[in-house]
Design a protein that fits this description.
With 159 residues, the protein is an alpha+beta fold. The chain has 2 helices and 8 strands; from the N terminus they run ααββββββββ.
Length: 159
C-alpha cells in the first residue's frame, strides 16, 4: 500500500523539473554571453586594425607625395635627379595579424587588407610615374627609389 502511494506522490517532481529548467536557462544565458563577448572582441580588433591601417597608409602616402614633390621641384628649376631614396619602415604585423599593402598606379591608391577582414583604401595623387607594388607583412625596411632611366618611383625592400 505504501509502495503505491510513492508513485502517486508528485511533490518531488516539481522541484526536480524546476532545477533542470533553471540549470538549462543558466547554461543558455551563459553561452549567449560568451558568444557575444567573442564577437565584440573580434569587432574591436578589426576596427583597431583599420585605424592602424589609416595611420600607416596616410604616412606612406605623405612620404610618396614628398618624393614626388622633390622630383618635380628639381625638374621645375631645370635640375636633374640622378638618384633619390626615401626610407620608410612598416611593422611586421599589426595586432599579431599579417597584412598586405597594395600600392596601385592608376588609380593611385593604397589598399591595406588583413586576414581578419579589416580593409582600408587611401587615395593619393602624384604626377611622377609609379611602379605598382604589393607588399606583404614580415619585411620591415623599404625605400622609395627614383629610377632615372624609366623616370618612375619604385618601392624596393631595403636589406
Amino acid at each position: 500500500m505504501k509502495f503505491k502511494n510513492v508513485f502517486k506522490n508528485d511533490d518531488a517532481v516539481s522541484i526536480s523539473i524546476g532545477f533542470i529548467l533553471m540549470f538549462a536557462v543558466t547554461v543558455l544565458v551563459f553561452s549567449a554571453l560568451i558568444i557575444s563577448f567573442y564577437s565584440l572582441s573580434r569587432d574591436t580588433e578589426k576596427s583597431a586594425m583599420q585605424e592602424s591601417f589609416k595611420i600607416m597608409g596616410n604616412g606612406v602616402a605623405i612620404k610618396l607625395t614628398a618624393v614626388d614633390t622633390m622630383i618635380n621641384s628639381t625638374n621645375f628649376y631645370e635640375g636633374t635627379v640622378n638618384a633619390l631614396e626615401y626610407e620608410f619602415v612598416l611593422p611586421a604585423s599589426i595586432a599579431g595579424k599579417s597584412y598586405t599593402m597594395n600600392i596601385t598606379g592608376a588609380p593611385s591608391r593604397i589598399i591595406m587588407e588583413a586576414d581578419n577582414g579589416a580593409k582600408i583604401t587611401i587615395p593619393f595623387n602624384i604626377s611622377t610615374n609609379f611602379t605598382p607594388r604589393k607588399i606583404y607583412s614580415g619585411a620591415e625596411n623599404y625605400m622609395f627609389y627614383y629610377n632615372k632611366t624609366s623616370s618612375s618611383i619604385e618601392i624596393v625592400e631595403k636589406s
